[in-house]
Amino acid sequence: MNIDAGYISVGILLKRKSTFFLITKNQRAYAWNSECVSDSINS
Predict the structure, then answer these.
(1) Cβ-proximal residues to 7 (8 Å cutoff; 6+ apart), any chain
(2) Gap between the Cα atoms of 37 and 7, Å rounded
(3) Which residue of 13, 30, 36, 39 has the smallest Cβ count within 10 Å?
(4) How many angstroms separate the CA atoms of 3 and 19, rounded?
(5) Model pLDDT for residues 7-31, shown as the tens digit of each residue
(6) Domain ranges in the chain?
(7) Is residue 5 very low, low, confident or very high in pLDDT (cuts 50, 70, 90)?
(8) Is 19 in contact with 13 (CB distance < 8 Å)?
(9) What is the pTM of this model?
(10) pLDDT of residue 3
């Protein structure tokens, strides 16, 4: 598997059909609820 790091806008990232997200075991659990996500996007 080839990993290529770089910068990309969130809009372009979400439009890609082949994009997947992986949360590794050493990451903290996802703690945002839908209201927090909406507030962040709207701000």
Answers:
(1) none
(2) 21
(3) 30
(4) 12
(5) 888 888 778 777 676 667 776 677 8
(6) 10-42
(7) confident
(8) yes
(9) 0.32
(10) 77
